[in-house]
Design a protein that fits this description.
896 residues; alpha+beta; 9-stranded antiparallel sheet; 6-stranded antiparallel sheet; 35 strands; 30% helix
């Protein structure tokens, strides 16, 4: 379904979106799809031991051809990643040409992989009609060795050593390098580079705007051929495969065209003779090492750059103008001149107008955060290519891959064939799809681009991704890992957000989503209930190191961890599928039959989590008033793992209520009546009778958590000495800061303590931490659940916010107050500081840094500083949805 084009501000971008969605005009062909890191990925790993970081390290990236993609710095490519553009730089001192962002591999950082460059996604639109990025390029020699040595020497109890800590930005000795793109048509892209010397002295700068072809011809397939680029006068001509046709590339500024080939330098890397005279690192060798023979004097090749050099005076700005024009462009306008400047002015204004129309009436600071968040979300849509079968088999011209990889977890995913633009969690630290992250991304997209939201939500459920048993892949490091099943939640929320914005419900999308989600539901029901008692252990469920033990594996004595959140996630899935079915039954009554299945499943799961039944244990601890994981031993005995964490809050997520009309239309929703036969079969149905069939405010509640338990949980949830931080809900209660929890079972003994920042343990690579920090995506799920409870209970249920403060609010207002705390992570406070920037004065006060917003993976549980991946705009972009809601309802919260 295509949204109607409003006559208001932002109409130009709305019109392009409509043309794209109707497939009338291919606006999606070009975008900021060029990956930011291709090295160190599983798909580029052809080693015997599966060590992707060592198999293709950063040191190889400038001289070795990638098999499955490309990478660059704030670049663009077509949606097949065949023709790529990016900017390379040299300050006259660096040992290597700066062609891609630099960071540490997982084993090199004291907290896993970590980006060590500073770049920012400043602007982007759904059709990529206007894009802007910024790179902070030091004028001194980049401290590669110092960053490696210092981080290797630090322990997990120490913070990461960042580029800013080296002092390289002192006295502002760096260049601000802005790169901007403006589309005149789908295949006519104006490119503008602006470099500014922020330092006190003159400084030399070399810029190489680079165009290259992804190497698809070296692997021995008859349908792929090499087509070297060449000059026509002062314009580069590129014949591109994949049906793209001929492109022309021009630069207004005087300079020299350099040509080389996108081929591996085998002599440099492996001490083997090169099969071709020119290689991928030719520009580096020519510029940085003075090797004139490294470039092709005949001016032809599969990689080309314009060489431009200048010494910039303090404060001087240097502007370059380029244009990339494809075969479908019919415009006869001059490529440069007044029309060029007017194009950028128009597209920038349209970008501003579009987001103003999408979310109006924001404060200037919230507008900055919102547009930065949406820009990062859009910039992190990247090309992802990977055929697992070809990866296992090898290519005709390459040695056979190690045979043992057929026996790995990924070896069973031979049907997976990816050739798509996918929203990445972080385009550098996590440059691949992650299933449950992607669902948050999709919901965030729904604010401005519902069509992309729907496409991303369902992408991994298409036949060329799913396994024969309907399992959807998790992420490339372990495709079979089960992730929290939030696809149904995402589909329903996308439907609701679009319907509210357009007043046109897309039932076609919802029906198609339900068909695929029911297949996935069957996989969950058959795969994860290992004990047959409706307890879904789940294994890896996205919360990494949140438990005292690694929940993926049994303990050494055979004991298993019965996860309270595993069953709760499954109950949430069944309830979200029920919600979709109830919605569809408005138009098509036959969906009533499907509703009955999900009602029954949800009731069974609620009983499993809350009553002892035949299992001999329950996950609810009446003494503590909290849901805990349980150790179940081989002899049948059980013990609580008493750690109050987000996993014990997940039962709150399984909540919905239905109005009178829905219950009249679907009597199965009235559980005491519709499941009377089921109640008669229960020897003790009291819990079920007490907690189902309850009406408030003309609504009927479905919830895993009864009212009395909800009140007890909320007391801890809003306690600043436990979960509630000044910046949202922590992953682990702060109680464990002074009272760490130790548990011993047989020969296994582990201690869990509150750790508000980086991970103190190497579990899951050690680069994420759920033992104290604030995670925005799960906070968002909690906020929505509080609102659902609030919609049902109204003012009959009030909580103290914070606990002990004497301030009593209903659950709806509590959700808004929680959102205020989360958004304040990014807002500039009265002290002039933005909490996410931590204690770095340069980032907090310098006028060229203080309004640059990064969206970290998670945030310090006490002071709100950003931790983990720094461009995790995917799920952290949920803050944009919060800003949207607060702009409409914040006065209610402030007045509570």
């Amino acid at each position: 379904m295509t949204a109607p084009i409003p006559p208001s501000a932002g109409a130009s971008e709305h019109r392009r979106i409509a043309e794209r969605d109707r497939e009338n005009v291919p606006w999606r062909r070009w975008g900021s799809y060029l990956p930011e890191r291709q090295w160190g990925t599983v798909r580029e790993d052809y080693s015997a031991d599966g060590n992707a970081w060592a198999s293709f390290p950063h040191d190889h990236a400038h001289a070795r051809v990638y098999r499955w993609g490309e990478d660059g710095l704030l670049g663009i490519c077509d949606d097949q990643c065949r023709l790529c553009f990016s900017l390379a730089l040299w300050n006259g001192q660096d040992p290597v040409l700066k062609e891609r962002p630099f960071g540490l591999a997982n084993g090199e950082g004291n907290h896993g992989e970590d980006i060590k460059d500073y770049y920012f996604h400043l602007a982007n639109t759904p059709t990529h009609s206007f894009m802007r990025g910024l790179y902070k390029y030091p004028q001194q020699r980049f401290p590669y060795e110092r960053l490696l040595d210092e981080n290797r020497s630090r322990g997990r109890d120490q913070p990461e050593f960042e580029l800013v800590d080296t002092g390289i930005f002192d006295e502002s000795r760096y260049f601000d390098v802005f790169i901007e793109y403006a589309k005149a048509s789908p295949d006519d892209i104006a490119i503008r580079v602006r470099a500014i010397n922020r330092g006190p002295d003159p400084a030399p700068l070399t810029l190489l705007p680079t165009l290259w072809l992804r190497n698809t011809w070296s692997w021995g397939y008859p349908d792929e051929h090499e087509h070297p680029m060449q000059l026509d006068g002062d314009t580069v001509i590129a014949d591109v495969g994949g049906g793209l046709g001929q492109y022309r590339f021009a630069c207004r500024d005087q300079g020299e065209w350099l040509f080389t080939d996108n081929e591996t330098n085998t002599e440099r890397l492996y001490q083997q003779p090169n099969r071709r005279p020119f290689q991928k690192d030719g520009f580096h060798r020519y510029i940085c090492e003075g090797e004139e023979a490294a470039i092709n004097p005949l001016h032809k090749g599969t990689k080309v750059a314009r060489l431009l050099q200048k010494t910039l005076q303090p404060g001087e700005e240097w502007q370059l103008e380029l244009r990339l024009v494809g075969p479908e462009t019919t415009s006869q306008l001059e490529w440069f001149g007044e029309g060029y400047d007017a194009l950028f002015h128009a597209r920038e204004q349209e970008w501003h107008d579009f987001f103003e129309s999408a979310v109006p009436n924001l404060s200037p600071d919230d507008r900055l955060i919102h547009t930065s968040g949406m820009a990062g979300l859009l910039w992190c849509k990247k090309y992802y290519g990977w055929s697992v079968l070809r990866w296992l088999d090898g290519d005709p011209t390459s040695p056979p891959p190690p045979a043992q990889r057929w026996h790995t977890q990924n070896g069973g995913w031979q049907r997976l064939h990816a050739h798509d633009v996918i929203s990445m969690p972080d385009a550098w630290e996590y440059p691949y799809f992650c299933q449950w992250d992607l669902m948050f991304h999709a919901v965030a997209f729904a604010i401005a681009d519902p069509a992309t939201a729907k496409q991303q939500c369902m992408l991994l459920r298409s036949p060329h991704y799913t396994a024969p048993n309907a399992q959807t892949p998790a992420y490339e490091w372990a495709l079979s890992d089960p992730n929290p099943p939030i696809g149904a939640w995402a589909a329903m929320r996308i439907f609701q957000i679009e319907r509210k914005a357009t007043q046109e419900p897309d039932y076609g999308f919802l029906r198609a989503a339900l068909r695929k989600l029911i297949l996935e539901y069957g996989w969950w029901a058959n795969r994860n209930d290992r004990s047959g008692d409706n307890v879904f252990e789940g294994g890896f469920l996205g919360l990494d190191n949140i438990a005292v033990f690694d929940r993926r594996f049994p303990l050494s004595d055979g004991s298993r961890i019965e996860q309270c959140d595993g069953t709760a996630w499954m109950a949430s899935l069944s309830l979200n599928l029920l919600n979709i079915s109830v919605e569809l039954s408005r138009e098509e009554p036959e969906y009533a039959d499907i509703c009955e299945r999900f009602v029954y499943d949800f009731v069974q799961l609620a009983l499993t989590l809350n009553t002892q039944g035949s299992r001999g244990f329950v996950n609810w601890d009446e003494d503590d008033g909290f849901y805990y994981d349980v150790i179940k031993r081989p002899d049948g005995s059980t013990t609580f793992l008493k750690t109050r964490s987000l996993s014990g809050l997940v039962p709150l997520l399984a909540v919905a209520s239905f109005d009178v009309d829905a219950v009249k239309r679907l009597p199965v929703l009235n559980v005491p009546e519709s499941l009377r036969w089921f109640l008669h079969e229960r020897t003790s149905p009291k819990w079920l009778i007490d907690n189902f069939g309850q009406w408030r405010n003309d609504r009927l509640l479905f919830s895993l958590v009864p009212e009395d338990r909800l009140r007890r949980i909320c007391t801890r949830l809003f306690d600043e000495a436990e979960f509630l931080s000044p910046y949202g809900i922590r992953g682990l209660s702060k109680v464990y800061a002074d009272h760490p929890y130790t548990f011993t079972e047989g020969s296994d003994s582990q201690t869990l303590a509150y750790s508000p920042a980086d991970s103190p343990v190497p579990m899951f690579g050690g680069n994420s931490n759920w033992r104290g920090p604030v995670w925005i995506p799960v906070n968002f799920l909690l906020i929505e659940s509080l609102q659902k409870f609030g919609h049902y209970y109204g003012d009959t249920f009030k909580v103290e916010f914070p606990t002990g403060s004497g301030r009593w609010v209903n659950l709806w207002d509590a959700s808004l107050l929680l959102q205020e705390r989360l958004v304040n992570i990014f807002r500039r406070g009265q002290d002039g500081r933005r909490p996410f920037n931590g204690s770095v004065d340069l980032l907090q006060h310098d006028p060229h840094w203080r309004d640059l917003i990064l969206f970290n993976e998670y945030f310090h549980g006490d002071n709100g500083s950003g931790v983990g991946a720094s461009h995790q705009t995917g799920w952290t972009a949920m803050v944009c949805k919060m800003i949207n809601q607060l702009s409409r309802y914040s006065n209610a919260a402030k007045g509570s």
